Amino acid sequence: MSFATGEGCYAWAEIYERLLNTGGKEQLGLRPFVGPLEVRFAPGRGRGLFATANVRRGQLLLCAGAVVVGDNASLPSELGVLLSRNASLRDVVLALSRGLPCSEKELLFSHSLEDLACPNAWATKHMGSPSPVDAVIVAEVLRFNQFALSSVSCVEAQVQVNSDLVRSGLWLLPSFLNHSCRPNVQRVLLHDWLVIRAARDLCAGEELVDCYTEALQPLHRRRAALQRSYRFQCSCERCCLEMVALDSAKVKDVFRRSDEVGASTQDASGHAQEAVLQAAEDLVIQGLAQCLDSGFEVGATLLEGEGSLKTRLRALLLGSFGPIFRSQAVSLQANGPPSPNNASFRKASAVWARFAEIVGTVLPCSEVKAATSSSLFCMTLMLHKMDFLRTCRPVFVECLQAFHDAYGGGVEVWLVWHRKMFPAEILDAARDVLTQQGLTDDGQPPQQTDVVRLERMD
């Protein structure tokens, strides 16, 4: 199997089948892949990862193996022991960012990107006698570079993927990703392997940016979390827009009202929470209009995308109220039987649709977008009495594309994730829909070539 730059071949359906069977807690034995990437300095941001060619959304960019994974409590000591016996690995790891500019003076060009994507392939060959390692520096490196592992649960019909609060890992090349509250890449954790895909179309020379905190939160919460954990204040294009368009006090008031409604038992109809959602919509519409009328210069990357600019900017700003939209959708969905005659259920479907639009703007090609698309498809099926062919096809195609963008593998991966969620006739219809929509097995129109080729692993 070739893992040369520009070609990554993985049997994604098999990989995710094993992931779900093990709950994401066992090694999968993958191999590294490095797409069209380079490491160089980003002005004012230290080292960064940059695209060296034009990249399509959903395209595989990186599959990297970890230096170490494990429980948070024991990870510093495990890493310290590993570094104490390997001088070459120690030099690289201790040169990672520690939250200060002085810790990012070098580009680490002594190692190729392929080496940095799979450090254990070479580090274990150069083990020597133990040498003392500063435990404080090791802890600092982990603080600013570790990724929480994924916790995967298949107990419910819909697979649940969440950040593991007690386990994490350290990766070399992915640690060079800088932050933005509007990321252009998305990551998937496969235990000790980390997969990076493009979340948007990227141009050659464009920096790849990840989100270090919960993106579906308001500006004041995101900035507080980043300052607490990483010692910096974000000034990305989304933050700049939100700072001008949304009054922080009014945003906090909307959340306060939502909390009060959530704590009340007097809103069985959902009218009170519906008023809260409308207040968020109105605040965004008014704030955005005033912002644009004032001559605010919208960031260049915010100008790109489908649909009208105002519609996209509204959805982006509504990302700050994401938790409210999701909680309302879940609450309404649980209020009564799943029937088209149930007014709450119809409202829940509408809120899920709005939330999916918001997530697709803030976190396209993400696991969150994929999960939201599944929930929306399920709601649509029940709302239209399982009338898949006539009324649910567009929502299904969107769901299928969302899963391919996040995980690769086309319909086969979608089937792995939804085996327990939908009846056999829906699962059987998936391939028929692909054919009728003119899509190939990898979820792309046949005239396009995807770097994610559905071949079996060696």
Explain this structure.
By secondary structure, the chain is an alpha+beta fold. Helices cover 46% and strands 14% of the residues. The strands form four sheets. Strands 2-5-11-10 form a four-stranded antiparallel sheet. A four-stranded mixed sheet has the order 3-4-12-9, with no helix packed on it. Strand 7 and strand 8 form a beta hairpin. The longest helix is centred in the middle third of the chain and has 23 residues. The chain starts with 7 loop residues before the first strand and ends in a 5-residue tail after the last strand. The relative contact order is 0.12. The N terminus and C terminus are likely disordered.
